[in-house]
Amino acid sequence: xxxxxxxxxxxxxxxxxxxxxxxxxxxxxxxxxxxxxxxxxxxxxxxxxxxxxxxxxxxxxxxxxxxxxxxxxxxxxxxxxxxxxxxxxxxxxxxxxxxxxxxxxxxxxxxxxxxxxxxxxxxxxxxxxxxxxxxxxxxxxxxxxxxxxxxxxxxxxxxxxxxxxxxxxxxxxxxxxxxxxxxxxxxxxxxxxxxxxxxxxxxxxxxxxxxxxxxxxxxxxxxxxxxxxxxxxxxxxxxxxxxxxxxxxxxxxxxxxxxxxxxxxxxxxxxxxxxxxxxxxxxxxxxxxxxx
Amino acid sequence: xxxxxxxxxxxxxxxxxxxxxxxxxxxxxxxxxxxxxxxxxxxxxxxxxxxxxxxxxxxxxxxxxxxxxxxxxxxxxxxxxxxxxxxxxxxxxxxxxxxxxxxxxxxxxxxxxxxxxxxxxxxxxxxxxxxxxxxxxxxxxxxxxxxxxxxxxxxxxxxxxxxxxxxxxxxxxxxxxxxxxxxxxxxxxxxxxxxxxxxxxxxxxxxxxxxxxxxxxxxxxxxxxxxxxxxxxxxxxxxxxxxxxxxxxxxxxxxxxxxxxxxxxxxxxxxxxxxxxxxxxxxxxxxxxxxxxxxxxxxxxxxxx
Lengths: 292, 305
Prior knowledge:
Helix content of chain A: over 70%
Strand content of chain A: under 5%
CATH architecture of chain B: Orthogonal Bundle
Structural class of chain B: mainly alpha
Mean pLDDT of chain A: 87
Number of domains of chain A: 2
Order of helices and strands of chain B: HHEEHHHHHHHHHHH
CATH class of the largest domain in chain A: Mainly Alpha
Number of domains of chain B: 1
Strand order of the largest sheet of chain B: 1-2
Oligomer: heterodimer
Number of helices of chain B: 13
Helix content of chain B: over 70%
CATH topology of the largest domain in chain A: MetI-like fold
Largest sheet of chain A: none
Shape of chain B: globular
CATH superfamily of the largest domain in chain A: MetI-like
Order of helices and strands of chain A: HHHHHHHHHHHHHHH
Number of strands of chain A: 0
Strand content of chain B: under 5%
């Protein structure tokens, strides 16, 4: 029965002893129904884009309908080829792999020094890193772009890879985790003659798989969705990522159904990532913000 | 302890140099990342300020003009419009975006069926890239008979709407899109908070005769409101930087009705290639945000105390 499970409810306001009242029972059902409606609102737009992708341009522009007549995957295949999506996927994956490595290596190294080595003056460095969280990246984007262009590094992936290596949020996540590692293991590594860098690569990182995983997921999401700097740098370079292309399509020659299929291609990877790691992602979202 | 240490240090001073090997290696390990932070984060902030005080041809700075760029910016009617719009965005995002996650969190914590699914489903829009989200909603709020919402509304016998072209509701509609994408993350945080409330509080209140709504008002809401202060500032900071939505939906229009400050930066940098003016606008945003962030840190600090 619908109400049986309420005997185990231990959070929120309504408890099993409230259920003797008919009004509360009705309220419970209404709340449940509202939640279902909310989820439909949350899931409907992406679902609609998938469905709209199955329609032809003529059909889409003239007939007011939500469901497609038939599910013809060849339309998606044709748009994929026409818009040369393989190329932009490869570009985006280049950015992703470089970003993941850089996010773990550079932020990890700094956090390792701050949390474990603690050289003289490490507090000043950490203070500066914390301060940089105050100023969102978008505000200094223009100056950064001018600097990169002056160095001749525009039209290159290198700035995109390296930029995520300077992420204050990742440094803090790593630092918190490294501080909780057992000191004995690190001391033991030192006695065994492990160098400082070796200790990081062979001992600290393997012990921190869970936080590395979280950072990889965050880095993938950030690198895949990032648009502003990639657009400034890669615009018309032949190295455009999926997001940069998506923006260029919407102002360009692509038809509305082609654009919607392009949107589908751009949201498939994050959706897969989410389906696989939904637990880590939702828990990380709730816990990360509470600590910060 | 401190004294003992001092003694120890004074004895060891001859043997231990001011910088030990450990410190040098530590700094060498930090160095690459510090260089990255300097290049990508710290220097551009200073560079923005410097750039905003010069004129430039392309990327090359020409001559020092003091605050002329700022004067030009504040005399620029579109900038004034963007400032006004930003506060309109903030107003609507407080009205729509601030309370929605609270209500959703209260509702979801009252369910016992499918709660895991509700939590995952509500977070789902968050993983859709911002640009894709906007393009999707552009068609959902499409005009004419083939717009998705118009199709749905016609099922209820409601007339077709022009949505974004109605300047009165352009900004609220954009805020709805922002809320659709962002509310889930905040809701999860509130849910975690509500689940941590001591059940004994509710039991005690029930024994005292408090009904369900009284318990929500006096126990649940005060608990999430303390967190809400922080969320509020984070939200305002995010709204200040709004760019994709007005840019992709209507290029800041119709008639600059939705133009944001970040869009002015975008226009200066990408259409007019006037980098000093873009930098000046960035600096103005930056000053606003530093004040807000300072406020944020103060609030979170007082929460810990």
